[in-house]
Amino acid sequence: MDVKKIYMDADALLGGHFKLSSGNHSQFYLQSAKVLEDPKTAKLLADALAKQIKNSGLEVDTVCAPALGGLIAGFALATALDVRSIFAERVNGEMTIRRGFEVKKGERVLMCEDIITTGGSAMEAAEVVKSLGGEIVGVAALANRGFCKRQHSDVVTKPNCKLPQDIPFFALADFTFEMYAPEDCPMCKAGSEAVKPGSRGN
Ligand code: ZN
Fold this sequence. Notes:
By secondary structure, the protein is of the alpha/beta class. It is built from five helices and nine strands, in the order αββαβαβββαβββα. It is globular and about 60 Å long. The chain starts with a helix and ends in a 13-residue tail after the last helix. Zinc ion is lined by residues 17, 25, 182, 185, 187-188, 194.
């Protein structure tokens, strides 16, 4: 399965000259929610991720996704794994689990995101699951930004990766691409102007 082509075709991976929210420039931009716009594509990706997880032998009782980005990926993955789906959400900046969701003591929970950058939100949500007695058995994402090493990839873990190294991290593809300070940007040097992604109105 060509995951990057699926992202490209869904306009979830854009090519061009972008000014990122960090101020850096990049030749690519990921708007990962777009790939889940078509439920058939969401199912296709979640099924592939579930297959990888099942093949690893990992036992999962529940998928937990941090809102908002992880919601659809988490639900689709839970469907594919045939397990319970819950989510954590921020209230006044604090990650919490509400809405009557319960976590049993020793429940094996897989954290799920649409995309893992450093894994910060997933780990904040994981702390809440742990405080309720759950056991974090792994992390899953459709896309990996390349700061953390996933299963079946040669990408090396970078210092800013927040995922624990003692549990597996599953993802379908690495989306590693260069980011440049504006003064070092080769595209700027070639005379093109960086655009803010989403300036088309999202
Ligand atoms: Zn530039």
